UniProtKB/TrEMBL annotation:
<dbReference type="InterPro" id="IPR052035">
    <property type="entry name" value="ZnF_BED_domain_contain"/>
</dbReference>
<dbReference type="GO" id="GO:0046983">
    <property type="term" value="F:protein dimerization activity"/>
</dbReference>
<protein>
    <recommendedName>
        <fullName>HAT C-terminal dimerisation domain-containing protein</fullName>
    </recommendedName>
</protein>
<dbReference type="InterPro" id="IPR012337">
    <property type="entry name" value="RNaseH-like_sf"/>
</dbReference>
<dbReference type="InterPro" id="IPR008906">
    <property type="entry name" value="HATC_C_dom"/>
</dbReference>
<dbReference type="Pfam" id="PF05699">
    <property type="entry name" value="Dimer_Tnp_hAT"/>
</dbReference>
<feature type="domain" description="HAT C-terminal dimerisation">
    <location>
        <begin position="352"/>
        <end position="432"/>
    </location>
</feature>
<feature type="region of interest" description="Disordered">
    <location>
        <begin position="298"/>
        <end position="325"/>
    </location>
</feature>
<feature type="compositionally biased region" description="Basic and acidic residues">
    <location>
        <begin position="306"/>
        <end position="316"/>
    </location>
</feature>
Length: 432
């Protein structure tokens, strides 16, 4: 799939359900330069009649060509959280002690992978020592989680591994020393808590962007917090990872985007916005609410009330009309044709925002889209902004999954597929 480029779009529909659609897979004859990618993205957007000014953000990895393409198109970009975390961990792993211990793990796993006899002996040792009968795992260089999984499995099966290798004089040098074991335990203790966050933020079926700031806060205050009873290597790994993430997420535009997403999530609101940024975020919310006000009120309809009830929701049973009902109908028609004055509109926006911020926070395990579905009539302007910002994916995993789908479509036996057929097959595979 190297000659191809895919564009995946995320949006929240009218029923506040997260949608992820692979729009198009384009064939590139030329190199993947920043200029060609920028032009290709614009062409895909135009082919689907998507207005670029409605594009909120593009989530990308750290590739220089993709970063340049977003810059050339003047698109706001968000770096993939998973890719950032991977680079932070790779930066923290630059230590001679870690290189030796991890290198030993790789050789050890390889010695068992290519020897059926050692595999059999390992199974027998596991049964004798009453250990789980698990096979050893190998590392994938582009997946930091696979390194942690390899180390965790070696530590789990350390006694069985030592028993098998101690009987082979040619392989005794692969038995980890106590120094290597200490290093592996330090790596495992530092990295194992981070796995769940990467998996949770890689989904495309629920809101993830608003969780970036809470996760970073959790890293600082708990997961990557240095404790006095930890080894020097564990403290060093944690400090390096946290310093790298803080540096990369210190960009003002990125901070503003993440603050807006968190503020519009009823689980967090302004809880994770720094005190210095509360006033600017409050002002931006007010400004964007004013811009979306006409569309929001038009969707609400003239007969709606703050409690979400409309004339259509009224019982269908017929009853005799009174003079008061005629007067009420006339007042409603007049209100429908009368627009709020600028001062009234400003007061309504301020009241809606204050009411939202002062309401109780949603439980962190609840779905914010369900909450907005129930409260969109109470907060019509803010609900429009929620649709705008909460659809942003925190990672580029959805796009990576499209590449995997493309790899399953364009195989060695189907290498003559025309680009337009590849586009159709990938589109149907991801959207049906």
């Amino acid at each position: 799939m190297d000659p191809y480029m895919s564009l995946t779009i995320h949006y929240i529909d009218e029923d506040f359900a997260m949608q992820s659609r692979c729009l198009q897979t384009s064939f590139f004859l030329q190199d993947h330069t920043g200029e060609s990618i920028a032009q290709g993205l614009r062409e895909v957007m135009a082919s689907w009649s998507l207005q670029e000014d409605r594009l909120v953000c593009i989530t990308i990895d750290n590739g220089a060509n993709v970063v340049k393409a977003a810059s050339l198109n003047n698109w706001t970009r968000l770096q993939c959280f998973g890719h950032r975390l991977h680079l932070a961990i790779e930066n923290a792993m630059r230590d001679p002690r870690i290189d030796r211990a991890v290198g030993l793990c790789k050789k050890l796993v390889s010695s068992f992978s290519y020897s059926w006899r050692r595999k059999k002996q390992l199974t027998e040792a596991q049964r004798e020592l009453k250990l789980p009968e698990h096979t050893l795992k190998t590392e994938c260089p582009t997946r930091w989680g696979s390194r942690q999984a390899m180390i965790a499995r070696v530590l789990e099966q350390q006694r069985a591994i030592s028993q098998v290798l101690s009987d082979d004089r040619k392989a005794r040098h692969l038995i980890p020393t106590w120094q290597d074991t200490d290093v592996l335990e330090a790596i495992n203790k530092s990295l194992s808590p981070l796995l769940e966050f990467t998996d949770a933020l890689s989904s495309e079926k629920y809101v993830s962007v608003s969780f970036v700031k809470p996760v970073l806060h959790l890293f600082r205050s708990f997961i990557l917090k240095v404790n006095n009873d930890e080894t020097d290597l564990t403290c060093t790994i944690k400090t390096k990872i946290l310093s790298y993430l803080d540096e990369k997420y210190n960009n003002p535009l990125t901070q503003e985007l993440l603050d807006m997403a968190s503020a519009l999530d009823p689980r967090f609101k302004l809880s994770y916005v720094s005190e210095d940024n509360v006033a600017p975020i409050h002002a931006r919310l007010t400004s964007e609410m004013a811009r979306t006000a006409p569309a929001a009120m038009a969707e609400m309809g003239p007969t709606s009330d703050p409690h979400g009830k409309t004339a259509e929701d009224a019982p269908t049973t017929k009853k005799k009309k009174t003079l008061g009902s005629f007067s009420k109908t006339a007042e409603g028609a007049a209100a429908a044709t009368q627009r709020l004055s600028p001062l009234q509109e400003q007061q309504a926006i301020s009241s809606e925002l204050q009411s939202y911020l002062q309401s109780g926070n949603l439980d962190s395990e609840e779905d914010p889209l369900d909450w907005w579905r129930e409260h969109q009539r109470l907060f019509p302007r803010l609900s429009k902004l929620a649709k705008k910002y909460l659809c942003i994916p925190a990672t580029s995993s959805p796009s990576e999954r499209v590449f995997s789908t493309g790899g399953n479509v364009v195989t060695c036996l189907r290498s003559s597929l025309k680009p337009e057929n590849v586009d159709r097959l990938v589109f149907l595979s991801k959207n049906l």
